[in-house]
Specification:
Length: 140
């Protein structure tokens, strides 16, 4: 829920400024942590789902799973921790896809908003009206 609310604030309000950039970074970090907890749950339910992970309680594996999550999110893939089970593999490749799409969509959107100089707090209909007025003049 927190991720969704931050996404709404970063993507759909106001001009691109420092707060939007910091918000986007926070969303990326939150994504990595969400996946880390998903991996912890998978490992807890299906022990041995990850190779290279010591067999210990989930609290002690948090650091390793957070590391693995961010390595996967950024598509680095060092290989020291690897998914062994089918569910773990599924989540790993889904996280890599989400990581690529997140950065692509976010960067493209923020740059597009910045270059267009659009105040996205305005309704889209108002923006269209203003664009048509500029194109055809206010008397058209």
């Amino acid at each position: 829920m927190t991720f969704y609310q931050v996404w709404q604030q970063v993507m759909f309000t106001g001009q691109v400024d420092t707060n939007k950039i910091v918000g986007a970074i926070c969303m990326y970090l939150l994504l990595g942590l969400l996946w880390a907890f998903a991996y912890l749950i998978i490992e807890e339910l299906f022990e041995g789902s990850f190779n290279g992970l010591p067999h210990q309680t989930w609290q002690l594996n948090l650091q390793d799973m957070t590391y693995y999550s961010f390595v996967t999110l950024t598509t680095l893939g060092y290989g020291d921790v690897t998914p062994a089970g089918a569910l773990a593999r599924f989540f790993a490749y889904m996280q890599a896809i989400v990581g690529i799409f997140y950065t692509t969509v976010l960067v493209a959107s923020l740059i597009g908003i910045r270059l267009a100089g659009v105040d996205s707090s305005k309704p889209i209909e108002k923006i269209r009206e203003e664009a048509l007025d500029k194109e055809h003049g206010p008397d058209s």
